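#struct-pred

JT: dropping the chains for the assembly here, can someone run the whole complex?
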Amino acid sequence: MIKLIDLYKKFGSHPVLQGLNLEIEDGKTIVIIGRSGCGKSVTLKHIVGLLKCDSGSIEVDGVDITKLVPLELQEIQKRFGFLFQGAALFDSMSVYENVSFGLRTQNIMTHENDIKERVAECLRLVGLEGIENTMPADLSGGMRKRVGLARAIAAKPQYILYDEPTTGIDPIMSDAVNELILDMKQKLQITSIVVTHDMVSAYKIADRIAMMYEGKIVQTGTPVEIKNTDNPIVKQFITGSAKGPITLENRG
Amino acid sequence: MVHKHLPGESIEQKIEESIEEDKFIRFLGHKVVGVADTLGKLTNLFLQILFWIGKKPIDFKNITKQMTEVGVNSLTVTSLTSLSTGMVLALQTGAASKNILNEPLYVGTAVGFAIVKELGPVLTAVVIAGRVGAAITAELGTMKVTEQIDALYTLGANPVKYLVVPRFLSCVLMVPILTIYSSLIGIMGGYFVSVYKLSIPGARYYHDIIDFMKVGDIMHGLIKCVIFGIIIALISCYKGFTTEGGAEGVGKATTQSVVISMVLILVSDTFLTNILQFFRIG
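RK: done, full complex below.
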């Protein structure tokens, strides 16, 4: 269970999070929607401790991670897998070294054979068997994302955070990624937090959807509740209209 | 600031002027705070390096790789620079001493001391700042803007331990080693010119150096190198870690890293020489 309580964060004089509250239940997939630059990715980075909030608290399984020292935080980080927007594969390493990286640094496996088996298993889960020796530069955008996902799940995390998993890949591939996210939930009972502005994907994978606007969550609900919302801000966003309370000047 | 009200000066002009003044003070304030902020962050990075340096497991593979990059791969360029520096030094001192004393005297002493105490350390450090410092900033900067450094964090590897410590160790160890090597090459360059161009006997050149040089003089050069190595590693890693703004940002950070390292090397050399002389080291 992850609880975000009253988070505030400023970059210079630009406020990004302005009193954000959110609860994430175990075993569920929550999708955070909102405009580009409204602070969705920043929220994700706060949850894993990559960014420090100005005020507020973040509870992971009852522990407030904003009060931890770096080494304690590192222990908590082991519970998380993170799929970055651009996959963020280490481009000096092969796919095999990328996927096995977390297993080695976190001392989860030491025997090379166990590692090999786990890497093959993860790549099979994302539908990319036998590409262990390929370099990231030789992969397409969709493949990179899937290798990124394989790397994120290798250490068997409790939570996976997805930063725009379907952005920049074609519709068929993005549906395949959606299927993967659903698979992860069913096969591995992983709690997922997905940040996206792709509504097709949001409706498909979400147990709950949270709409973020001006640094706050303005509504949370099931996909059906969000579809039938009365909130003008949410309504404008999900129908994708340029007219409404969200003006183009408000972009973050 | 109180303005005298001059005839013909309108209230608007006065307000505008005071806004201008305000801007200037703000600009100055920003600069001062900016420099203090950077110094604080550099110190923080340095302390983090010291914290992680002894933490096990030590990543020998990565350290060896970086040492090869800093040391072995810089041999050609440092050889060339120091060889020509040694030669030109011998030519100039030879010519100068011929002009004044009618014969080239103490060429070995001049070349040896200049190279061992000043030019060897400074030139090697400048070459390494250009070659290795730039590469470090560009690599770490690219990793930063493509979120690979964030990825390291989430996979349980501390970026300072994983990326900075090996680069820091290689700079601090390899710059002095390269300096010893390049000083020898430089002295050799001076020897060639002295013997074949200035017709000084080889033994004379050798004794001109050996008879005057003390261990302190060599230490003087080596202590400087260690400091230069620290400067190169700190600046280039810091600039890489703070890169923002895509490919353009990486380019800017790389240029800044090289320029700042070079300037710092040259400026700190003055202070270091003073301090070392104060403690009678060389």
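JT: nice. The mean pLDDT of chain A is 89. Chain A touches chain B at residues 45, 48-50, 70, 74, 77-78, 80-82, 84-86, 88-91, 101-102, 105-106, 151-152, 155 (CB under 8 Å).
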